[in-house]
Design goal:
It contains 18 helices and 22 strands.
């Protein structure tokens, strides 16, 4: 049967219930007797650490998985979804954290992708564009239907995803980490849209790790832990500490770095330029100095040169122009081995691609670059007892949860893989540490631990460049904050002197001077 766009007067879902949902995977009970519901005209937040079962639960509601036990009930009637197409026809949409858009296509083409035209084989893009404009105006989602997706900002792409769900007639929309890559201004705009959708009678499920956003936008909150519901409460009756205790079973430590006397400049980046993978210039004259005992946070929306800068500073990408100095030594053209010997460590953004070998064991991953060092070898022979003792010490010190030292890394959780990489990189007592997205995709408990270790390293005199798209993380850990936009540094400000509004404006391409005036 052809799938066509629905109109707003077809919105019909008043209540969705998930009753006693059980979902098993080999060796894992992902959801255990989970009950969850959402009503028209409310935002119901879903919280929990990594592995708590949030995504698994929502994938069942969206038809990606089928429950092993339990049922889904829409407006009093049990339903069975065999695919996302079934869920979409029932009025359920999902906005994934990583957008499902095709960059070479226009907004209008992306919106109707997968739908059948009334006038097959001809596409009526004019009618589609008109409908897109109507939805855009109705919900404050400013977007040009004729624009190519690759031309759009991250915030604009998210608007396209929301319009795509609305075009298909979704009255219940699941939003998975919707603010992860947005500027503060874009988050505000998104929340305006979500509140408008709620007033129009939509039901929203909001998944996020950012507790202040949950407190601001949601009406109710459900917390999962180890696949079970810990509780469901009206948000107004909860505090952030209440939510944290429900998520991790204890209160979190308050991390507040104390000012220390910084040392000499350890990392100097001078007029750095490099090309991106598509042949365009991604860094356009970056200059930054970082002192020993200092964390400089690099804030910016994804895709503005952060990845290329991290790869240049770790020896993985060729520098076109400019210079990188470590303790006054020019390392720009040195082999990667010399960078490590000079005292540079790197926590990569893509941990499974650049930071670990999936099939290698925990112990083997701890020695990827250091197995030949005099500490662990005698000539051509490796000192296996010493390596095993050291690996056991690192696993214990960094609280890496693993059954054995010979367990393949692919069997560990994301948070434990990140701890393992951090153990390897910090064990060298580096002079300079490049930490790119160190807590991306890890839960609140692992995030707390990683933050503590970074500050311990900073207090030990290491110069740290923290690259993160989480503005809260940047403001918590950094002594100074540099803002990057389209490969250029818009300004560097002291943490305590910079407001969120000022940083957000700079992330959108406004100069530091103008941002200060606007936010004054």
């Amino acid at each position: 049967m052809p799938v066509e766009a629905k109109t707003n007067d077809q919105l019909k879902i008043e209540r969705v219930e998930m009753c006693n949902i059980v979902k098993r995977f080999p060796g894992v009970l992902a959801n255990s007797q989970v009950c969850f519901d959402v009503n028209a005209g409310e935002v119901h937040a879903l919280l929990g650490e990594n592995g708590a079962g949030k995504s698994t639960l929502m994938r069942q509601l969206y038809g990606l998985y089928k429950p092993d036990e339990g049922e889904i009930i829409i407006d009093g009637e049990p339903v069975v979804f065999h695919s996302p197409a079934d869920a979409i026809r029932a009025g359920i949409g999902m906005i994934h954290q990583h957008f499902m858009l095709v960059p070479p296509l226009t907004v209008a083409e992306n919106v109707i992708l997968g739908l059948r035209s009334k006038n097959e084989p001809v596409l009526d893009l004019e009618t589609v564009s008109k409908k897109v404009m109507e939805l855009s105006q109705a919900y404050g989602l400013k977007v040009d239907p004729s624009a190519f997706v690759w031309q759009l900002s991250v915030g604009e792409q998210q608007r396209v995803e929301i319009i795509k769900a609305l075009y298909r007639g979704a009255s219940l929309i699941i939003l998975d980490e919707p603010t992860a890559v947005l500027t503060p201004q874009e988050v505000k705009d998104l929340f305006v849209t979500l509140k408008h959708m709620v007033r129009e009678g939509h039901a929203l499920v909001f998944i996020s790790h950012k507790l202040h956003e949950v407190m601001e936008i949601s009406d109710r909150v459900t917390v999962l832990r180890d696949g079970q519901v810990i509780g469901t409460r009206p948000t107004k009756e909860m505090t952030r500490n209440d939510l944290v205790k429900m998520m991790v079973g204890r209160e979190m430590k308050k991390i507040s770095p104390q000012p220390i006397k910084t040392g000499p400049v350890r990392l100097k980046i001078e007029n750095l330029r490099t090309m991106g993978d598509r042949g365009t210039e991604m860094l356009r004259g970056i200059s930054v100095e970082i002192h020993g005992g200092e964390v400089v946070g690099l804030a910016g929306v994804s895709g503005n040169g952060q990845r290329e800068l991290a790869e240049c500073l770790s020896g993985l990408r060729k520098v076109t122009v400019g210079k990188i100095e470590l303790d006054d030594s020019d390392i720009t053209s040195m082999p990667l081995k010399n960078w490590v010997e000079a005292g540079l460590s790197y926590i990569p953004e893509e941990r499974m691609r650049d930071g670990a070998i999936r099939e290698f064991s925990v112990q083997e991953n701890l020695f990827l670059q250091d197995h030949a060092s005099p500490q662990f070898s005698h000539g051509i022979f490796l000192d296996f007892p010493r390596m095993e003792a050291f690996a056991a010490k690192m696993v214990k010190e960094f609280t890496v949860k693993t059954p054995h030292l010979d367990t393949p890394v692919k069997n560990l959780s994301g948070g434990n893989i990140q701890k393992l990489i951090m153990a390897r990189e910090l064990a060298r007592q580096p002079k300079v540490l490049i930490a790119a997205q160190p807590t991306r995709g890890v839960d609140i408990g692992a995030t707390e631990y990683i933050h503590e270790r970074l500050l311990m390293q900073r207090d030990a005199g290491t110069a740290i460049l923290l690259i993160s798209e989480d503005l809260d993380e940047i403001r918590t850990l950094s002594d100074r904050i540099a803002v990057i936009y389209e490969g250029s540094i818009m300004g560097i400000v002291d943490r305590d002197a910079a407001s969120i509004e000022q940083i957000g404006l700079m992330m959108a391409g406004i100069s530091m001077e103008e941002a200060i005036q606007r936010s004054a």
